[in-house]
Amino acid sequence: MSDDLPLLPQLTVTSGPLRGASFRLRPGARTIGREEGVDIVVEDSRVSRRHAAVELTDGRATLSDVGSTNGTFLNERRIEGVAVELRDGDRIRLGGVELRFFDPSAALTDPVGSVRLVGPIPAQRAIGSSDERRSTIGVLAEPTQAMQTARRSGRLVLVVGGLVMLAGWVAWVLMVTR
C-alpha cells in the first residue's frame, strides 16, 4: 500500500453509545446499520439493520437512506429517495445516534472527539491496489472504563504518597522536638 494516500473523509460519532468513534471512509459505498455484516455497525435499537449508505466517489461523498424505519436525517432534515451530497461539518442522525462528517480536503472544521479503543468494528480495508477484503478493526472501545481505572490508580498513588510524606513529617517533628 502506498504511503502517499490522499486524506480521506471520516464520520465521527458525536452522540450515542459509540461517542468518539471515527470511521475513515474509503472510495466506494459503505452501509450503516445495526446488523452484523454492514460496513459501519451502530448499536441503537432505533437504527434499522440496514439504515443508510455513504458513498465516496471521485472525492465526493453522498448519503442516502436505504429504507430505514425511522429515517435518516442530514442537518435535522429527513432525506428520502435520493443521495444527498455531504459537506464538511454536516450532522447525520440515525435513530438516537448522531455522526458528523469531516472532510479534510475542505478543512472548515476539526474532527470531533478523540480516538479511544472500544472493540472490534466491521470495516473495509484496501489490500494492495484495488483488492478489498472485509476485516475487523478495533477502532473505539469503552473509553471511560480505562480512563476511570487510570484515574483511580493515580488517586491511590497520590493518597499513599501523601500519607508517606505526612508520616515522614511527623517523624521529623518528633525527632526535632525531643
From TrEMBL:
Taxonomic superkingdom: Bacteria
Keyword Transport: no
Pfam family name, one: FHA
Residues passing through the membrane, by range: 156-175
Keyword vocabulary terms for this entry: Membrane, Phosphoprotein, Transmembrane, Transmembrane helix
Domain FHA: 30-79
Protein name stated in the entry: FHA domain-containing protein
Organism: Polymorphospora rubra
